[in-house]
Amino acid sequence: MPGPKPGGTRHQRGGKTIQDTPAWTSLPGMMLGIAARKPDHPMIRHWSGGGWKRTTWRDFAFAVASLAAGLRARGVSPGDRVALVSDSRPEFLIADTALMAIGAVTVPTYTTNTVADHAHILRDSGARAAIASTARLAERLREAAGPEGLDLLVCLEEAPGTTSWAAMTADPGDLAMLVAEVAQIPEGRLACLIYTSGTGGKPKGVMLPHRAMLANRAGVLPLIQQLGLEWSGACYLSFLPLSHAYEHTVGGSLLLSYGIEIVFSRGADRIAAEFREIEPALVTAVPRLFEVLRGRILAGLEKETPFKRGLFDRTVALGLRKMDGPPLNLLERLQDAVLDRLVRAKVRARFGSKLVAIVSGGARLDPDLSGFFLALGINVLQGYGQTEAGPVIAVNLPWDNRRRTVGLPVTGVEARIAADGELLIRGGLVMDGYWGDPESTARTLAAPPGETEPWLHTGDVGVLDETGRLTITDRKKDFIKTLGGDMVSPARIEGLLMAEPEIAQAVVAGEGRAGLVALVVPAEGASPERAVQRINGKLAGTERIRKWRTVDPFTVENGMLTPTMKVKRRLVLDRHAAEIEQLYS
């Protein structure tokens, strides 16, 4: 879709003109260009051999040139799709950049995918080559490829039937020549196919040209500059997989391009310790991480004296009052100042002394959950995006955080609400379409009635307030229409249920029925009964849960969670159809 050029532009924000960086036309052009200017600057930090290892921009550039030469020598050509199945590590970014540099199309794929998932992506994308980080993943790809096999299967480990990473990088390549080549890549060239994890049918390959990710970078530039993070020595703790559309853009190139070092987390069980050890300025996460962190804080609080628990509760209550009103009186302001030193300072210390913000994306973050952390002095920002939009669309700001919204659209994004409430997006960040699926593309990139210019139809129902801030209320197709004709948002009710400490997961049903029922996954060792009662007390009569039952957890392994931890609502409802019928009987 046509849109403003992302590079070499000037942006207006808050009355201040901000000069952008050189007019890069491609991601590898940007990455290798930065390496030429800042060769000794730290770029990546990852855990290896019992300690943290650093990769500089110079190391990265020479590794890209070497792998690019190896890929060409083994027949990878412009336009070829190459699956990239790897955990977060330097080689992922090296492979991603090298493939794009020689004109190939990267297909980042989750390491948690089943053989069937890989088979669909290989078949749909037409990928005849793949890069895997482990022998186990390589074997899974080989099985997914079937009898025809793959023309090239590269593995970072020594594995039978694969070409080793060492062999692929034996030729040092010609870095100067590669830099000259990438300078000629047009911004409209297809850079990658990101397969949407999907909460319903088969994943679709989103065609993202270089323009889309560079537009994301230009859109976020004013925020990064106002935070003073450019080439400041700040680091970013990367928790999401690089195959996730958000992490692929934000962690894999956008933040790196501002000189912010990316540090790959060792996993959810280590992230609490890594906050203190790494002292990141920025972290991104999905809502589930916030639920886990809140659970750990509250569990630790149970071991404290009643007096200390009372101080904690008072701190949260006053923090919420400061955000939501009514204003604190003089005595309360004095109490709040004291509690800031006694309670909030200790909580902030858990997250490191340099933390600027934790940005939540990937799914709706319940305002009560974000409010808990904000009341304790942890800057949690909710953002919004879609794979089809590069993916960053909107984000709150640390100094202007409206937690019940997803913030203002970033620079360069046009947003409007259609007559039926659907959010429409336009700008250079929008995808070219779905790979091999012109019908879905035509539905998603369509002009509103009476217009000729196409907009991205997000499928999300939203509201733009008078200040331009965006609030997402639901998925358009997920609204429940009850037997009485009432339209109910299941996402809102599910969010309220999962904000309760006794409930880990929840799905609400009731389409065409007299009332709503719920499938509930209890938190470990908890009974959800009182939680459901509390939530029903907050809901209108048509929204209340009439009956509920507990079910086994929704997981990636049983197919009811996407790799990005979103519940596949339709699949859950289908698999539990018998239990739902029993609730209505």
TrEMBL record:
Chemical reaction(s) catalysed: a long-chain fatty acid + ATP + CoA = a long-chain fatty acyl-CoA + AMP + diphosphate
Coiled-coil segments on the chain, per record: none
UniProt GO molecular function: ATP binding; long-chain fatty acid-CoA ligase activity
Classification via CDD domains: VL_LC_FACS_like (cd05907)
GO cellular component, one term: membrane
This protein's record includes keyword Manganese: no
Protein name, as recorded: Long-chain fatty acid--CoA ligase
Organism of provenance: Muricoccus nepalensis
